Amino acid sequence: MSAAVQCVSVLGATGSIGTSTLDVIARHPDRYRLHALTAHTSREALLALCQRHRPAVAVLADEADAAWLRERLAAAGLDTQARAGEAALVEVAEASEVDVVMAAIVGAAGLLPTLAAVRAGKRVLLANKEALVMSGALFMDAVATHGATLLPIDSEHNAIYQCLPAEHRGGLARHGVTQLLLTASGGPFLGWTPAQLAEVTPAQACAHPNWSMGRKISVDSATLMNKGLELIEACWLFDARPEQVQVVVHPQSVIHSMAAYSDGSVIAQLGNPDMRTPIAYGLAWPQRIDAGVEPLDLFQVARLDFQAPDEMAFPCLRLAREAMAAGGTAPAVLNAANEVAVDAFLAGRLPFTAVAELVARVRDARPVLPADELATILDEDRQARQTAQAILVRMLEETI
Ligand code: NAD
Ligand code: MG
């Protein structure tokens, strides 16, 4: 393999996607080298990654943590530079020596560095779906304007990407695609009644049957808000209308999603539920490389089941579809309210079933503004969080 070595920055390197990315990269030292690894506060974990992967730069949120890291790196004889803060995150996303940026920060915190990578025309591997949900048209316009290569890492979107023609811009209909079938595992509470759901604990919500993931996306998977965010993500990535995306519950998580065509064909992408497959696809596209993933054993899978999602028990999916239909800042508000609600649930302050209620109440309290300016989106994100905190306090008082 004589392709030039690609230089990669991994944003959110200590997380579930970040560590899977480093696992794939470490299998191909001839193809990839690391520019930067970043983390929020996990300085010990970042130090360990620096020792193992020797990036040029390491970024943490706070200067005190960066100073701690700097000292340890020097003591270990490593020449990795430790930096701090959002400006440093943006810098490692847009640095001229970087070819590929893995956007794997969780939540709205990833928007600015991910957008910086897009605006610098990088190959952007998008795991951080919240960034695209918040900024939709603005994000996709920036991809086109700056000639960035956007490759979806979310397993469903990566699957759809693989099931569509190589050049699928310009609307699905032009390519004979009638529907995108977005599969959902159904999460750990598939089939549960609202009464059972009311008693769910954070530990139960974070124990996903098929995927091992960060805590926020685990809760989103359990409420089906993850599928709602993914529906919005699919609309932007593939230029689809919400009604062209059908959610199909498929508990085995072997089919990662499908595209249906006007001649009756349905093309699916299958594989073991292991994020290293879409990560390796994004890193090597249009080539294929070893991801360290076990081959799929269909005899062991034996059967594939499908059912419709239960939007009565899991209203977050409907809330997301409505936010996409409302347009403008509505998806950014949905995302911000959901981040506050998930934090409150994980902290034991909010019942599981109240997550959707809080999101709906914030939606009702906020206007829908045009989302063509980044400043408007960031401001609405901040305001929606404040509104969510105020409504949360009221909801907690109501239940006392
Ligand atoms: P995680 O919680 O395991 O890791 C998050 C990473 O982001 C960590 O490195 C953390 O240090 C960093 N981070 C958190 N808050 C930050 C902040 N405020 N500023 C800077 N850095 C911050 O999360 P994850 O499961 O790896 O998910 C990452 C993203 O990928 C999410 O958007 C998620 O929806 C998406 N995703 C994850 C999976 C999965 O299997 N884990 C699958 C599909 C999509
Ligand atoms: Mg997914």
Notes on the structure:
Helix 11 runs parallel beside helix 14 (316-326). The protein is of the alpha/beta class and 400 residues long. It has three domains: 6-153, Rossmann fold, CATH 3.40.50; 157-190 and 203-310, no CATH class; 327-400, Rna Polymerase Sigma Factor, Chain: A. The model has no long low-confidence stretch (mean pLDDT 96). The protein is built from 17 helices and eleven strands. Strand 2, helix 2 and strand 3 (57-60) form a beta-alpha-beta unit. Bound molecules: nicotinamide-adenine-dinucleotide and magnesium ion. Keywords: Isomerase, Isoprene biosynthesis, Magnesium, Manganese, Metal-binding, NADP, Oxidoreductase.
Short structural summary:
Its EC number is 1.1.1.267. Its cofactor is Mg(2+); Mn(2+). The chain is α/β, with parallel strands linked by helices and 400 residues long.
Features:
binds nicotinamide-adenine-dinucleotide; 4-stranded mixed β-sheet; binds magnesium ion; alpha/beta; Rossmann fold; Rna Polymerase Sigma Factor, Chain: A; 400 residues; 3 domains
Query: Helix coverage percent of residues?
Result: 40-55%
**Backbone CA Rg:** 21 Å
Low-confidence stretches: none
How much of the sequence is in beta strands?
Answer: 5-15%
Instruction: Please state the overall shape, judged from the principal axes of the Cα atoms.
Output: globular
Overall number of domains? 3
Largest sheet: 7 strands, parallel
CATH class of the largest domain: Alpha Beta
**What is the CA–CA distance across the termini?**
65 Å
How many DSSP H or I helices?
A: 17
Stated plainly, the CATH topology of the largest domain is called Rossmann fold
Give the strand line-up of the largest sheet. Answer: 4-3-2-1-5-6-7
Shape-level CATH architecture of the largest domain: 3-Layer(aba) Sandwich
* Ligands bound, unique: nicotinamide-adenine-dinucleotide, magnesium ion
Structural class: alpha/beta
Order of helix and strand elements from N to C terminus: EHEHEHEHEHEHEHEHHHHEEEHHHHHH
CATH 4th-level superfamily of the largest domain: NAD(P)-binding Rossmann-like Domain
Give the beta-strand count: 11
